[in-house]
């Protein structure tokens, strides 16, 4: 599954969804995680909130999970409607550690929130609930 991380440096989760200058996108399986690409967002002057959310949704539209520091309520609703689950993690969390935790969860018995996402992905549908990232 593809997983996005809101980041400003490509190595730590250190950005709010609506202000993230880029997303590090990884392909994560039971066998490990690999960086697919760093998706930088173009700087648009005077962009309204809806435009910021929409451009970020387009950037992560093919992802199953998105790890962020924070996300506003309206953005969270739009993300989950796109069948992407937002996962809040502490500011500055190293992306490689989050990938490692995710791989370990996939190898073992995934927590209920992750099992639900994986089931939905297999069925081609999704159910969105916000996870706080403290499970596991």
UniProtKB/TrEMBL annotation:
Keyword field: Nitrogen fixation
Ranges of residues in domain Dinitrogenase iron-molybdenum cofactor biosynthesis: 9-103
Entries under Gene3D superfamilies matching the protein: Dinitrogenase iron-molybdenum cofactor biosynthesis domain
Record-linked CDD domains: NifX
Top-level division of the source organism's lineage: Bacteria
Pfam families for this protein: Nitro_FeMo-Co
InterPro entries, per the entry: Di-Nase_FeMo-co_biosynth, DiNase_FeMo-co_biosyn_sf, NifX, NifX-like, NifX/NifY_domain
Transmembrane residue ranges: none
Family: Belongs to the NifX/NifY family.
Official protein name in the record: Dinitrogenase iron-molybdenum cofactor biosynthesis domain-containing protein
């Amino acid at each position: 599954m593809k997983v996005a991380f809101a980041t400003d440096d490509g190595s730590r989760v250190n950005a709010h969804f609506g202000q993230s200058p880029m997303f590090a996108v990884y392909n994560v399986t039971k066998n490990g995680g690999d960086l697919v690409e760093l998706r930088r967002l173009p700087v648009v002057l005077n962009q309204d909130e809806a435009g910021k959310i929409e451009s970020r949704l387009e950037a992560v539209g093919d992802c199953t999970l998105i790890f962020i520091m924070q996300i506003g309520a309206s953005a969270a609703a739009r993300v989950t409607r796109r069948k992407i689950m937002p996962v809040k993690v502490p500011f500055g969390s190293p992306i490689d550690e989050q990938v490692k935790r995710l791989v370990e969860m996939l190898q073992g018995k995934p927590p209920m929130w992750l099992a639900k996402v994986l089931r939905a992905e297999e069925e081609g549908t999704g159910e969105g609930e916000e996870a706080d990232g403290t499970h596991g």
